[in-house]
Amino acid sequence: MNTKTKVPQALKAKVMLWTDVSYHDMEEIDKMHSIPDLESALCSAFKVDLLEPKRGVLLELYVQAVLFCRECNFIKEQTSVLLSIIKSIHEANIETPLDNIEQCFKYCKDLLLCHSVRRPPFSINLFSSEEVNCILKYIHNSYVRHYKLYKYIFTPQVKLDLSLTYSGISDQDEPTMEDSSAPDFENEIKKETKAAPKTDSKASIEEPQGASLGSKSELKALIEKEVREQMTLVSGQLDQRMKDIADQHNSAQDSPQPNHKAKK
Question: Is the pTM for the entire model greater than 0.70?
Answer without folding.
Answer: no
